[in-house]
Design brief:
The protein has 430 residues and is an alpha+beta fold. It folds into three domains: 2-30 and 37-157, Jelly Rolls (Sandwich); 159-266, Immunoglobulin-like, CATH 2.60.40; 282-418, TIM Barrel (Alpha-Beta Barrel). It has helices spanning 2-13, 33-38, 298-310, 324-333, 365-379, 399-411, and strands spanning 21-22, 47-49, 53-58, 61-70, 77-83, 89-94, 97-102, 109-112, 120-129, 152-157, 159-171, 174-185, 191-200, 206-216, 220-231, 246-254, 257-266, 271-274, 277-280, 283-284, 289-291, 315-317, 336-340, 385-389, 417-418. The strands form six sheets. The chain has a five-stranded antiparallel sheet with strand order 1-8-5-10-2, with no helix packed on it. Helix 5 links the parallel strand 23 (336-340) and strand 24. Helix 3 runs parallel beside helix 4. It is globular and about 65 Å long.
């Protein structure tokens, strides 16, 4: 009887697919300022871990699910499902309908699931399966974290902070905060949101704070630009040797009450690329790199990274996108990162006929672009990232990597983009 029920559920899940992946900075929200500083979700009402239980197997498919109770108060909220550490490709089904699908098991992703939820109990199911693009993940290191470790669900008000771009730049001996807060309004009418922020120096001195009313048209997004002179504080410029971080908190106020706190750590200064060298704050970086993927826990990874620093390494090269805490940790301790797209396509790297190598197969270009966009948007604000790699070593070259290079250069204006298998072609800054 159980197998029949699973088969019926599986057939229902295969009925339709809608892409609902969200391309933005990876963040979660907190109910209090203190919890946001400590990154503690224990008392956050609209945040919960997603820990699906095994429902059974159907052939080569494994089904995991969890019930989500949606309160009536969430009618004014957008709900997101964050997925990582799935080991394999997956589909997401809600109440028997597939609402999203992913061939990329390596890059953590957020999905907007509100349109598929109903008030009361909902079945949120993951279907793990073989990828239809196995050629894009050959030779990748095995996953070290537990299955579904780091998955969660959170609800965010429908008029709120949708995303942000944060930088502290140096001009004429002074530091300047350039903070773009992207506000979103998913209501059918114009809405005004009060957005607050404060910024503290690495020594915890309050520099500036404000609350600004911002009106956003219905079903749209708009950008609130915050520009603050931080003074002649060049000692706070971030580098691997001096990892000083400014602390900023964004929040929303409604009815005079603040809620939805979003913590942001910002490293002052800029990474640039000139004459074949990477510069940090105008000084060339002598890169001493090593391949490294995050360990099972932040605590163990911290030990690993500090040990690597003591041996003289200053740059980590993971083989695919890592958990968000990995980049925050590298920001904190001072370790550069060369971020890599989740593509390791080593089949026939020297076969440059069309389709001879995956990287020169136009049928795969959308998969290459999707993985590149997912990688870039979620961690673009982390100061530790000094360069981007389009694919793993020996992934060939061709049309797909030409297109991802062009896209990445169109959005990233200062940090270099590397194609290790470019072999002298134009789609690599090295």
């Amino acid at each position: 009887m159980k197998k029949l029920a699973l088969l019926l559920l599986f057939m229902a899940m295969c009925s339709s697919v809608f892409a609902q992946k969200v391309y933005r900075s990876q963040f979660t929200l907190y109910d209090t300022r203190e919890d946001s500083i400590n990154r503690d979700h224990t008392n956050t009402l609209n945040h919960m871990s997603y820990v699906p239980k095994k429902l059974g197997d159907i052939g080569a498919f494994a089904m995991y699910g969890m019930k989500l109770a949606v309160p009536a108060a969430w009618n004014d909220y957008n709900t997101y499902l964050h997925i990582e550490n799935t080991v394999s490709a997956y589909d997401i089904a809600i109440n028997g309908t597939v609402v999203a699908t992913s061939e990329d098991a390596s890059t953590p992703a957020d999905y907007f699931i509100s349109p598929y939820l109903r008030q009361g109990d909902n079945d949120v199911v993951l279907l793990l399966r073989r990828t239809i693009y196995p050629q894009l993940s050959e030779g990748k290191a095995e996953q070290r974290c537990a299955l579904f470790n780091g998955c969660y669900i959170f609800a965010q008000h429908r008029t709120s902070v949708y995303d942000y771009d944060a930088a502290i730049v140096e001009r004429e001996g002074k530091l300047h905060l350039e903070l773009d807060i992207i506000a979103g309004n998913d209501f059918n009418v114009e809405d005004t949101v009060s957005i607050g922020y404060d910024i503290y120096t690495p020594e915890r001195k309050l520099v500036d704070y404000a609350v600004r009313d911002f009106t956003v048209a219905s079903r749209s997004r708009d950008t609130l630009k915050v520009r603050v002179d931080l003074g002649a504080e060049l000692r706070y410029l971030w580098s691997a040797d001096k990892p000083s971080l400014y602390r900023t908190t964004l929040y929303v106020k409604r009815g005079g009450k603040p809620f939805e706190y979003l913590p942001v750590r910002i490293g002052a200064g800029k990474t640039t690329f000139e004459d074949g060298k990477i510069y940090r704050n105008g000084k060339p970086i002598e890169i001493n790199k090593i391949a490294y993927n995050a360990n099972q826990s932040r605590a163990q990874s911290r030990k690993d990274i500090l040990a690597l620093k003591s041996k003289g390494y200053n740059t980590l090269c993971p083989d695919s996108p890592q958990p968000m805490w990995f980049y925050n940790l590298c920001d904190d301790v001072g370790m550069y990162v060369i971020e890599q797209v989740a593509i390791n396509a080593t089949a026939e790297p020297n076969n440059r006929t069309v389709g001879g190598t995956p990287s020169n197969n136009p049928k795969l270009v959308e998969q290459y672009l999707e993985r590149t966009k997912s990688m870039y948007y979620r961690t673009r604000n982390n100061v530790c990232i000094i360069a981007y790699s389009l694919a793993g070593k020996d992934s060939g070259n061709g049309y797909c990597l030409y297109k991802t290079y062009q896209w990445l250069k169109s959005v990233e204006k200062s940090r270099p983009v590397i194609c290790t298998s470019a072999d002298g072609e134009w789609n690599s800054d090295f």
